[in-house]
Specification:
The chain has 496 residues and is of the alpha+beta class. Helices cover 40% and strands 19% of the residues. Strand 12 and strand 13 form a beta hairpin. 33% of the residues are buried.
């Protein structure tokens, strides 16, 4: 959690979704009342180590780790919080003092702590345990708002993929060494994740639609949700149909993998230094876009979700239960969970961050990826996302691959034939691909060249070395952030 967000919360003060609590050496006695209220309402943020007015008191440095462990253990203890949830508190330094940041998502279940149920009312946690009307309304709201809660009483544990559950434990363990899922069997894991529920109105219990979408075998998914699919399409050269397509009809975990692979296959990567860490802007942006497409979708609607890559944009759309209408303004955006159980599951395995961060991150990194362009998020019955692309160099590469001897108009061939002698036709062809790539995409590094033209990196290193000796290619910039360019003489010849 970055300190900028913390400072905004301090300035905002306590309210419907923000709560401050003192916690010098121990957790406040009423902390789980607030956690329960946030879970039952619209989610919220707890900051421990502050007074009621946002004054930073701090948490004892020697006690901070222990307090975080207590929060994690108690939130997974059914006697303290029921149904249990997995929470991930963070220690943050503000004004040279340690505080604890805890984001509590809106839940699709009704939670209680030591037998009492709470809702958020203004900046207070209200006990509604004896208010039968409020309790009934809360259960009904959770039941009708979140279709992921639909119960299928005849589903059995054998309908779910054991290999996928095993992989889930690995992913969760990568996020946190002592993740509670690591010690649970399959049934316990799914119950802990809120994927097995009881309907308190008709006493029906069983695995939910969220469980099916996340972990079921493909034939089970198609039986329960026969219209379910996500369509990934590349449409750059053949505009009437498509150049490439992946019709994805598997579980959400592997759907995420396939959609990210499709994006990596068809969009260029660009790297960015954040501090001393080099990161992929493409992966940063589309991690959020793909997760949003899968997590915040209304699965009872038969409309398929789509991810379409064209020459000038990437566009996604998915069925939605809108909380508003029109273009979303990030400055005034208030996130609303569409599938809290699915979102929570994705967070546990590191596929998403807290609710609302995806939109902010996409705006931040899209500007860097496309030199100032802004993404668009449209909230309607069909939720639409548009990522603008600058004039597409990859389009030329696709056309080049289809007919290499026309790239561009024989000039590159002339340069190759005129300078490189005594090489096989195969090597000359690879040299042409490297030169053409650097003409269309400057500043590329060896590992990226290897990915683009599908030649091993060791071979690229050898070819680049030869091209440098011949005066065709040069390296510009710092060792860690620079890349390869055609020399100015060669660019001048190509651009004549």
């Amino acid at each position: 959690m970055n300190t900028v967000t913390i400072h905004k919360l301090l300035k905002q003060g306590e309210g419907l979704q923000v709560e401050f609590k003192k916690a010098k050496e121990r957790l406040p006695a009423n902390i789980f009342e607030s956690i329960c209220a946030f879970l039952n309402s619209n989610g919220g943020t707890l900051l421990l180590g502050l007074d009621d007015h946002g004054g930073v008191l701090g948490v004892d440095v020697d006690k901070a780790e222990r307090l975080c462990e207590e929060l994690i253990n108690n939130s997974n203890n059914a006697q303290k919080l029921y149904p249990p949830v997995y929470l991930a508190p963070e220690i943050v330094e503000i004004q040279k003092k340690k505080i604890i940041y805890l984001y509590v998502p809106c839940s699709s279940e009704v939670h209680s702590t030591v037998g009492k149920t709470y809702e958020r009312n203004g900046d207070a946690d209200q006990d509604i345990s004896k208010n039968n009307k409020r309790l009934t309304q809360l259960f009904l709201r959770k039941q009708t708002t979140f279709s992921e809660n639909t119960i299928y009483p005849y589903l059995k544990i054998s309908d779910f993929r054991k290999d996928l559950l095993k992989r889930i434990r690995v992913l969760a363990g990568n996020e946190r060494d002592n993740h509670p899922w690591l010690a649970m069997n399959d049934k316990e894991l799914m119950q802990s994740a809120g994927l097995f529920k009881r309907d308190y109105h008709n006493n029906k219990e069983g695995y939910t639609l969220a469980a099916v979408l996340l972990l079921a075998k493909d034939e089970v998914i198609q039986s329960v949700v026969p219209h379910y699919r996500t369509d990934a399409i590349l449409r750059k050269v053949n505009l009437d149909r498509y150049d490439d397509r992946d019709d994805v009809r598997t579980n959400l975990i592997e759907s995420y993998d396939r959609l990210m692979a499709f994006v990596k296959k068809h969009l260029p990567d660009k790297f960015y230094m954040e501090g001393e860490q080099r990161m992929s802007l493409r992966d940063k942006i589309f991690r959020e876009i793909v997760a949003n497409l899968l997590v915040h979708r209304e699965y009872t609607n038969a409309a398929p979700a789509r991810l379409v890559i064209t020459e000038d944009k990437v566009e996604t759309d998915n069925a939605n239960k809108p909380n508003g209408h029109g273009r979303i303004n990030p400055a005034s955006f208030s996130p609303h969970p569409k599938n809290p159980a699915i979102a929570k599951f994705f967070k546990e395995i590191g596929r998403v961050d807290e609710l609302g961060s995806g939109l902010r991150n996409t705006h931040k990194f899209c500007s860097l990826y496309n030199l100032g362009t802004e993404p668009k998020f449209m909230e309607e019955d069909i939720f639409k996302t548009i990522i603008p692309l600058k004039p597409d160099r990859e389009l030329a590469q696709i056309k080049a691959k289809a007919n290499m001897n026309k790239l561009p108009e024989g000039i590159i061939e002339g340069i190759i034939e005129g300078i490189i002698e005594g090489m096989t036709d195969d090597v000359k062809e690879k040299m042409k691909k490297i030169i053409f790539l650097l003409h269309n995409e400057e500043g590329v590094r060896i590992v990226d060249i290897a990915k683009r033209i599908e030649i091993p990196a060791k071979s690229i290193e050898r070819y680049i070395k030869e091209l440098k000796i011949l005066g065709l290619v040069e390296f510009r910039g710092a060792n860690r952030t620079g890349g390869y360019f055609l020399t100015k003489d060669i660019e001048n010849k190509i651009n004549k």
